[in-house]
Each structure stands twice: as structure tokens, then as C-alpha cells.
């Protein structure tokens, strides 16, 4: 250990020699100090001395303490031995001379290479610059001590599992630019990841700057993917959660495929396990990526995803595909995991997904019938798909016009032993009617519905007819199908009414008559709906020809309407509300408003006939009277509706104001005409 007394300096050359030895990193003995020419003082670089002191700070403790003492002694010696101006005067950098009596010939020969690694040197050195050397060492020691203390405190907090304290110390270390021990960073990451995935991701980013081994880094990412399941929207803004997941996915996307095969399944399971809706859909993109890139998918992992279907929507994961893959692997998922998948797919308008789902459910029941697993079979008998859900699925099939899905619904009905309901029949008819090649199945379903004792409503007939009316060729195909020789199973009154309604909505009077005749040929007695559709065809035809000057069609259609009324009276068929509505429309178009008004008033006068006058009939006749100036009659009919129709009352008031205005103009003109004629008589 060097002492201050060892550094007594007697001349300039001895001081310079010691300073050179210090800057070179040596610790020379005081007895070996030689002499150095005064001219070599100019080669000393204070900035280099400071850099050397930074390097010396990393050596052993005894050497560092010795250097401190040495520098303090140098500072004292310089102050006491040399005048201040001797360091500020310019120095001669020429070759050393012998006559100065300071350097020997050998020393002079080696003096040129003493500081050969420096490019430029200052021409002078001051005492103030040498004072910064011990101060710099002191600051470095203080910073190192703070770093050590911070690491010690962080390690203590980690051992005590004080998560919040650990995060505070870690943030302080980053703020003050202290170097945290990588081992402590790893321990801190695993501690924080249990509760705060976002903070643990920040710790992982810090560790990536100073990684130890790649294996530890991948393991940390694995742990982070697991920790995503701990995200809680109650303590973290949605925007920050989405940003965290997007950043993490971008980082994982840049990794190798082998690493993705390890991390993607873990992250997908964590995303569906957490409670935030905003980041749940990220799981779907990961799952689709795994499927598209043929990742090895384990059945246990699929079961884990399927078990979360009760708490997640279909947008989070394609649960129908998960169930289908499980069944294809030979697995028998628990019914409490499989059935919620169907419930989450409400309103069942995605028919492709529903077909996959019901197909997988039927495959499970096929395995149950074979007897592969009696325990699972008992569970599926206990927990089955209810019939109301099947009705809703059939509604989705009718809305989308998908006959494949409706057939799967019927298969599930057979598996569970359910009897079809009227709603399932109706949806089956509509689903097949939407396809031109499904007309026979639609007619068959309608006929079977009638045979099973269900009433075929007018709304169902109208829905069927609207599905085929858009093209005349479709309606003609339906009529030919019913009149074919081998179509006895589907030939019934309701199916003929479907074709009759289609022609009526198109206003085809002649085709309506052909259907009426065919109904009688096949012993299908027309009912109220049949006559209502025929009357509708007459009114639609007149409406289509109202711009024509040929009035023969008006007379022809009114005569046909009269014959229909006579036939109904002969066959004892009472008119329905729809028939009255269509007949009133025909009369208004034929300019027989008085007949239409008297018909409505007569029906309203009796309780028996009052029920066949609906609001549509009252609206049509009241508005027609208002247009012709019969305001009082229009108001009377408008007040007879079962509920107030504001638009009808507004139109009547508008017509009344218009007629009053026209009446006032007419009277004013008459008055002016009378005044003009009286003036002319007086002039004469």
C-alpha cells in the first residue's frame, strides 16, 4: 500500500516521470523514478488522464485506493514545487537536448515513442485541470455505490415478494440510468408477471438489452404469454391493453416459426381466458394462422379452448371449427363444452358455420350409438339440445335460404326424438322455396305439415309465393310440378294457393283462371284465400292498366269479380277480410266509389260483417272519398278504424283545405262574373 510520504517530489523531472507511469497504468516504485526533461511536460494530456481514471475505477479496491492517494499527493506536490506560470507557458516540443542535463542518451532515444498513440497534445496544462481527476473518481465511486445499493434493495424486495416496491425500484433504476443485475431482472420479471403482464413486458424489453442466454429469453416470452390471461379491464384502460397485445404480436411475428409453434398456442389460450372483450378477437387471428400454416394442434389444447366457449363469442374464436377438429381426431368433448358453442352462434345466420357445428354434433351421436364411450353417452342424454334452439336455427336457415342447414336440423330432431313444430315446418318450406331446385321439397314440406295436423297460415302461403313470384318462369315451373301425373303426394289446396298467390301478385288474370280450373279438376275445393287471391289479381291488373284509355278491361274485370261473388255464394264460402280489401280496391280503381262506400257501410252496420272490414279497407275507401271531395264521409270512415291512423287524418285535412280553397276561388269568380254582368246591363 502506497503512502503519502512516499510521494515527496524534489524536482520537475521526477514529477513528470511519475505522472507518465500513472497514465500508462503502472505502479512504479519511488526509488526507480528518474529525471525527465522539462520540455516533455507539453506531452501530458489532461483529458487522457481522466479517461485513464475511468478505467482504473474497475480494478481491485487496493489499487483504486492507492491511486486516490497518489493523485492527492500529485496535486499537493504540484502546488508546492512549481510556480503557476510554469504550467501555462508554451513548451518546446523539439527533440530533447543533452546540455539540459536531464535525460540520458537512451532516454532521449525512447522519448519520441512514449506517447506515440496520441495524435494531438495541448501546449499547456493548468493546475485546475489536475484537480478534476480525484473529483471524477469520487463521482464514479458514488454512482457505483448507488447502483450496488439499488441492486441490493431490489434483491431484498424480490425475496420478500413486494411487487409494488420492486416496480418502484426498477423504475428508479431506469430513470437514474443504473445498471440492474440481469439475474435480478429475470427474478423481477417472473414475480411481476403473476399480476401485471404489461409491466412484466416492459421488464422483458429491458432484459432484451442485456440477455444472458436465448433459452431464458424464450422461457420469459412463454411466461409472458401465460400472463396475458391475467389482464383485467377494471384496472387497465382498453386502449393500453390493445396497444400491449398489438406490440407483443408484432414482436412474436418477427420470430422463427419454431418459436411461434411454442408461443402461439399459449397466447391464444390466454386471450380467450382473460376478461376483456376488446382483445379477445386477437385469438381468432392466431388460431387461423396456426391452421393455415399446419401447426401441430394437440387435442388437449382444443378442449381447453372449447371449454371457454361459454364465456366468449364466436368472434373470439371459430368454436365450430374447434369442435369439428376435435371430433375428427376421435375425441368426445363434454356436452357442457360443446352445447354452448351453438348458443354463442346466435342468431345462426352464418349457415356455413352452423352446418359444420351440427355436422360435428351428429358425428358425436353416431359414435354414441356405436357405444364407444358409455359415460359420454349418458352425459349427452342428460344434456341435450332443446327444441326451441333448433327452431331458432331453422329460422336462420330460412332467412339465409340454406336447405342444407334445414336438413341438418331435421337430422338432429330425429337423433333427439323430437317432433317437428309448426315453426320448423314453416322455416323448412321457406328455406327450400328460395331455391328453384327446391320447389318439390317445399311443396312436400307444406303437404306434410298439413297432414300432421298443423294449420297452413296465409302468411306462410304468401311467404312461399313471394319467394317464387319474381320470375314468371319459376311460377310456371311450380304450376307444372303440381299438375304433373306423378305429383299426387304434393298436390293439395295449400300448394295450389301458393301458385295462385304468385300469379295474383303479378296481376296475371288469365293464369289465375287456369289455376282455379286446375284446382277443380284435381278435386281441390277453393277456400277463402283462393277467392281473395283471384280478386287480388283483378285489382292488380286494373292498376297496371289505369293509364290506358281502353276501358274495356274495367268492365271485364268487374264482371269477373261479380261471377266470383256469385260462385262464393253458391258454394257457401263467406268472404274474408282480405277478399273485402281486394274487392274494395277493385271498385275504387273501376271508379265505383259509391258501391265501395255502401259495401263498407253495410258491413260496419252489422256485428257479423264488421269483423271482415279491416283498417286497410277503411283507409282505402276513406282516402278515395277525400280525393273526390266527400270529406264528411271520409272523416266518418277514418273514425271507424280500430286504431287511429295519423297519416289518414292528415291527408283528409289536406284534401279538405284544398277543396275549401278551390271552393272559395270558385265563389269569388262567380261573384265577379255576377258583378260584371250587372254592370254591363246598367251600361246598356
Task: Give a quick rundown of the structure.
The protein is mostly helical. Helices cover 68% and strands 0% of the residues.
Structural description of this entry:
- With 684 residues, this protein is an all-alpha fold.
- The chain is 68% helix and 0% strand.
- It is built from 33 helices and no strands.
- The chain has helices at 12-23, 46-56, 61-81, 105-110, 127-159, 163-175, 182-192, 197-209, 214-227, 238-253, 257-273, 282-292, 299-307, 319-328, 335-343, 351-370, 374-382, 387-400, 403-416, 422-433, 439-451, 458-468, 472-483, 493-506, 509-521, 528-544, 552-571, 577-589, 593-605, 607-610, 615-627, 631-638, 646-683.
- The longest helix has 38 residues, at 646-683.
- It is elongated, with a radius of gyration of 50 Å.
- The N and C termini lie far apart (154 Å).
The poorly predicted ranges are: 1-12, 23-60, 81-131
Number of H- or I-type helical stretches: 33
Outline the biggest β-sheet. none
Strand content: under 5%
Structural class: mainly alpha
Shape: elongated
Mean pLDDT: 78
User: What is the gyration radius calculated from CA atoms?
Assistant: 50 Å
Q: What is the rounded distance between the termini?
A: 154 Å
**How many β-strand stretches?**
0
Helix content: 55-70%
Which helices and strands occur, and which strands form pairs?
Elements (H helix, E strand, L loop, with lengths): L11 H12 L22 H11 L4 H21 L23 H6 L16 H33 L3 H13 L6 H11 L4 H13 L4 H14 L10 H16 L3 H17 L8 H11 L6 H9 L11 H10 L6 H9 L7 H20 L3 H9 L4 H14 L2 H14 L5 H12 L5 H13 L6 H11 L3 H12 L9 H14 L2 H13 L6 H17 L7 H20 L5 H13 L3 H13 L1 H4 L4 H13 L3 H8 L7 H38 L1
